[in-house]
Design goal:
Blueprint: H1 7-18, H2 22-35, H3 43-67, E1 83-87, H4 94-101, E2 119-125, E3 128-134, H5 149-157, E4 161-167, H6 172-185, E5 188-189, E6 195-201, E7 207-215, H7 219-228, E8 234-242, H8 244-252, E9 256-257, E10 260-265, H9 272-286, E11 289-292, H10 298-312, E12 314-321, E13 324-325, E14 330-333, H11 338-345, H12 347-351, E15 353-359, E16 368-370, E17 380-386
Parallel strand pairs: 1-3, 1-4, 4-10, 5-9, 7-8, 10-11, 12-17
Antiparallel strand pairs: 2-3, 6-8, 12-13, 12-14, 15-16, 15-17
Helix pairs in contact: 1-2, 2-3, 3-5, 6-9
The structure holds guanosine-5'-diphosphate (GDP) and magnesium ion (MG).
Length: 387
């Protein structure tokens, strides 16, 4: 992250970061890019900002189309408990995987660029419906961007989890590296950030720093950094461990972290042992969960389903009413409480909450009576008493 930007570029970037509408963001970002000098030290930042601008522009166009009642071929309505975006290079088997994971019939072909629009399907895993969205390739077979890259990345950005599909028969290590850096350029990080930074402009009071974690620099340096970006009054919240460079990146590029699972597909072509070795190598290098898959191997598809479900960090809770347990679960984020469950069912139920009885792993005694703050576990059965 270059720190030596001219003051006017920094000020414009700050205006872009705090812009509220997409139109304003586009305008400010265009101006900011024009103010950043063209040299080696600013290369990465300029690339990231140009990609961000392209993404914002295509999002703006899509919104406009929607507003004017036109058909937006690239928007996918969320259905089910979560949405997983399938991304990868051309011909890696994205559509084939969608079809075996769900009831969808996305066109499969042995030539690249056979998928030209998003294609949704519903995956049933552990009684829960999870939506998968097959996307046109973000890279060609030669790992170059395609005409779909920006729009596919936009869908990925709005999803809950990424399924990255690699073709194990043609240098999967390079594929993953190019995808990682492509996503980074588009402001999506596959690595959980060591810190989270939130900036809120205020009407006065100077720059206030709230640190929930550890700063790897002096507080005065952070305040100086914010001033150099033209902030005079703001609350800056830093959560986790943060260096000055990381704070600057978060303030300007605002990368979003996306959880992901990697499918090392066509593993039948490698054979089980080699596939396992390559998967291990990929996992070590990337820090991501990697599952060898083949559309011809049912067990590997089950493994992938489990990995996807696990990475969503959701728990299934079954409600009970008058002694009858529902046959379909409700899904909640891990760590959710009984009160949050009640809120999900109905606001009235949460308002009148008295107590709940719980059966399952979150209680010591089955049928135990619990209060609103009790944390639930996967598979729990809950009967809420309200009145
Ligand atoms: N051997 C093998 N071939 C596969 C597998 N998955 C997909 N394919 C083939 O790879 C080609 C591209 O598949 P497709 O699903 O259209 O890829 P996409 O472009 O990523 O959507 C087709 O010829 C598929 O039959 C797999 O697991 N093993
Ligand atoms: Mg396809």
């Amino acid at each position: 992250m270059p720190t030596n930007l001219p003051a006017e570029a920094k000020a414009k970037l700050a205006e872009y970061s705090s812009a509220r509408t997409i139109e304003e963001k586009v305008a400010k970002l265009e101006e900011a890019i024009g103010l950043i000098p063209d040299h080696k030290g600013t290369e990465k930042l300029r690339r990231q900002l140009r990609k961000r601008l392209a993404d914002l522009r295509s999002e703006m166009e899509e919104r406009r189309r929607r507003r004017t009642g036109g058909k937006d071929e690239f928007s996918v309505e969320k259905e089910g408990w979560a949405q997983i975006a399938i991304i990868g290079p051309a011909n890696s088997g994205k559509s084939s995987l969608l079809n075996v994971l769900t009831n969808a019939k996305s066109p499969v072909a042995d030539y690249p660029l056979s998928t030209v629009r998003p294609y949704p399907g519903m995956m049933l895993v552990r009684d829960a419906e999870i939506q998968l969205v097959d996307l046109p390739p973000v890279l060609t077979v030669d790992l170059q961007p395609t005409g779909f890259t920006s729009r596919a990345v936009s869908v990925a950005r709005n999803s809950d989890l990424l399924l990255i599909v690699l073709d194990s028969t043609s240098d999967p290590v390079a594929q993953l590296e190019v995808i990682r850096s492509l996503l980074e350029d588009h402001g999506i990080s596959l690595k959980r950030p060591s810190c989270e930074v939130k900036v809120q402009r205020t009407d006065g009071g100077g720059i206030r720093l709230v640190v929930l974690g550890r700063l790897q620099c002096r507080a005065t340096e952070v305040i100086e950094l914010m001033r150099s970006y033209g902030y005079s009054s703001a609350v800056l919240k830093v959560i986790g461990d943060a260096t000055l460079d990381e704070i600057e990146e978060q303030v300007i590029v605002q990368p979003v972290y996306k959880r992901s699972v990697v499918a090392l597909n066509k593993s039948d072509a490698l054979g089980p042992e080699r596939a396992r070795d390559v998967a291990r190598l990929l996992a070590e290098r990337s820090g991501l969960k990697v599952v060898p898959t083949s559309v011809h191997d049912h067990l590997s598809i089950e493994d992938l389903k489990e990995a996807l479900f696990g990475s969503l960090s959701l728990i299934r809770v079954y409600t009970q009413k008058d002694g009858v347990v529902s046959n379909k679960p409700l899904l909640l984020p891990e760590g959710s409480t009984v009160l949050e469950l009640a809120e999900m069912i109905h606001k009235e139920l949460a308002r009148g909450f008295r107590y709940a009885r719980v059966w399952g792993r979150s209680v010591k005694v089955q049928g135990q009576r619990v209060g609103p703050d009790h944390s639930l576990s996967d598979g729990d059965v809950v009967e809420i008493k309200a009145g």
